[in-house]
Amino acid sequence: MKVALLGCGVVGSEVVRLLREQADDLTARVGEPLDLAGIAVRRLDRARDVPVGPELFTTDAAGLVTRDDVDIVVEVVGGIEPVRGWLLAALGAGKSVVSANKALLASDGSTLHDAAAAAGVDLYYEAAVAGAIPLLRPLRESLAGDRVRRVLGIVNGTTNYILTRMDETGASFTEALEEATALGYAEADPTADIDGYDAAAKAAILAQLAFHTRVTLGDVHREGIGAVTAADIASARAMGCTVKALAIAERSSERPGVSVRVHPAMVPRSHPLASVREAFNAVFIEAEAAGQLMFYGRGAGGSPTASAVLGARVAVAPNPVAGRRGAGRSGAVAVQERGRFRNGAGTRGPRWRRRRRTPRRSA
Ligand code: HSE
């Protein structure tokens, strides 16, 4: 099973490292080795601390994603273009795609879903929202028989880190942002975090899945944390509250029936979200039958995000034990059940991509 990796920054280099360190386990789970076919980067001359040779690197992402020896494309570049074109080319060429690209999924996810469905391949993006927290799959699959009323949470690690440091240590906004950047939490352009674009993209994706509707970034009301001052934090403290940047998606009685917003809010210190510190994320889901559910974990940083990427990649691969796809029909996608195949101990199963059946939607 050959993987093309697009991007080798904080998350991409962790993906490479985990892939190498966990090679034996991954091989056992997938049924055959997961090898890197190539890594597309913007510049070849940048020093990278990754355990692979220079021959794997290329600047030709468009050529890499459609290569015959590539089965799965993993994208951790971010941004809309040229990534959208690469991923559409990959899907059109019959490659499954694992993406952490919240901006693209939030703005034009439906085009990618349609391309994946048309080609009968998988599109996974668990890593796009809340890093390592398994959130999209439960929302899409476990709650498929329920009616979600509201999704409420902290989905940006950088702003939660900044607000936590300002609250607990009296750090200035600038100092806290520098720390978050050094720890690999912040986006390449941290205004995406500070001004709420990152959280708004994640809120749109959550709303799409929670309410089975096409919500895009432009539908999300957005306020960043740039205007939050030390005095605001002190006032909140005096009132027994803390300031958190919240993403809220809920059913509304007014058209279009769903309201999605991102803004700083005072949260009582007794509320579970108040204890979500530093770069951790937490998401509450309120569903009619299930009641309140809370998902909590690391929402930013190389390793947590790489964990979600690798989990999706294993899910894309077939599973020799179950006799079908690895982790079941999961992620956040329209997926296709693969044809069954035999794969006994010590044998390699045939590649599912060569046994694809007529595509059909499952979700
Ligand atoms: N910049 C993002 C955050 C990274 O701070 O949450 C994870 O999406």
What would a concise description of this structure say?
By secondary structure, the protein is α/β, with parallel strands linked by helices.
Task: Please outline the helices and strands.
Elements: E1 2-6, H1 10-21, H2 23-30, E2 35-40, E3 57-58, H3 61-65, E4 72-75, H4 83-92, E5 96-99, H5 102-119, E6 123-124, H6 136-142, E7 148-154, H7 157-169, H8 173-182, H9 191-194, H10 197-211, E8 221-222, H11 230-238, E9 241-251, E10 258-268, E11 280-287, E12 291-298, H12 302-316, E13 318-319, E14 324-325
Parallel strand pairs: 1-2, 1-4, 2-3, 4-5, 5-6, 8-10
Antiparallel strand pairs: 7-9, 7-11, 9-10, 11-12, 13-14
The chain binds L-homoserine (HSE).
L-homoserine is lined by residues 131, 156-158, 185-187, 193, 198, 299-300.
Could you list some keywords that capture this structure?
disordered C terminus; six-stranded mixed beta sheet; alpha/beta; six-stranded parallel beta sheet; 363 residues; Dihydrodipicolinate Reductase, domain 2; 2 domains; 14 strands; binds L-homoserine; Rossmann fold; 12 helices
Number of helical segments? 12
How many β-strand stretches? 14
Q: In angstroms, what is the radius of gyration? A: 21 Å
Strand content: 15-25%
CATH architecture of the largest domain: 3-Layer(aba) Sandwich
Mean pLDDT: 86
Shape: globular
